[in-house]
Amino acid sequence: MNILELELLTDSITETELFYTDVIRLKTISKTNSSVSFAAGSTKLTFRSSENLKPVYHFAFDIPNNKLLEAFAWIEKKTEIMEVVPPEKIADFYNWNAKSFYFYDNNGNILEFIARFSLDNASEKPFDGLSILSVSEIGFVTKNVSKFSDEMFKEYGLSVFSKQPKLEKFIVLGTDTGLFILVEENRDWYPTHQKAKSFWTKVVFSNNDKTKEIEILG
Fold first, then answer.
1. DSSP annotation string for 106-167
2. Domain VOC, which positions (predicted)?
3. Fewer CB within 10 Å, N side or C side of the chain?
């Protein structure tokens, strides 16, 4: 599975554009008074204007799997990186054969840079914003994770990620190249104590050579 487009809300288009261009150094594709779109590798990442909603999302960017420490140092110069298990700031997902680190954007969204060692995506170029390969994960929040997972399988043919067993309040759908993280409402967004809430989200993704669209109304 691959996430082709991701659309989210922000209460501040101007500050969001500054963060994603100055800190992560994404290229701006287009902007209006009410939206801004960036090229995050192969994914089009769009923020649309909201008012006093204070939307918070959790999503991940894939980076070349030989650039984790270089990316860490690059981001650390620009913003604070979260501790996962203090004092460690790099999470080791050994079941997933991946490592990652986390930081906030200007909206309080929890962003993740993740290196997946099962993928053949190493790069010899110095790390910068153009090194980002895609948006590879987006969190979906629901009151009934198991039911939502079943609905996603029935509607979109999405199956459980082979490297992550199903849990009552946490189910991951997709493949190494694209994942939907299903969590129960009010569960802590890892690695923070931020409670997961559902906000409007739109995703265009490809799966089994078919392009499909999901819109979460919040």
1. TT--EEEEEEETTS-----SPPSGGG--EEEEEEEEES-HHHHHHHHHHHH---B-TTS---
2. 2-116
3. C
